[in-house]
Sequence to fold (140 residues):
Amino acid sequence: MIKLIIINGPNLNLLGKREPNIYGSNTFTEFLDKVKEKYSNIVLEYYQSNIEGELITKLHEVGYSYDGIILNAAAYTHTSIGIGDAVKAINTPVVEVHISNTMSRETFRHQSYISTNAKGVILGFGLQSYELAIQSFIKE
Ligand code: DQA
Fold:
């Protein structure tokens, strides 16, 4: 069974309440339950933290044994050399996802410290971005 993990960064625990015009009105748990049901033939774990170092520690923990990591580092995408280095250090392929199309937003969101070492990048499809990332691992 293939083993994937979704790792969400800061403020993504507020999905459903946070700027719903940009990030939608569904909570991540609601979405995750549906996706887990749909993809019952894979192991799909979930981790969220608002703390940069915790995200790095989680990448180290899973990055040598899981089949894939779906990473939305949220605002740290644009600032964290540490998370970028962790993505580079580990063996498990990372797909970078964003709910919004960061390229159509403020210029500070155009920079990513993750993309250079990601297997691929999916942005702008709402929560469906995560599902597309899952499919990218299944269809390998
Ligand atoms: C985000 C985009 C980031 O720029 C922002 O800081 C987020 C969410 C997204 O999923 O669209 O928190 O990663």
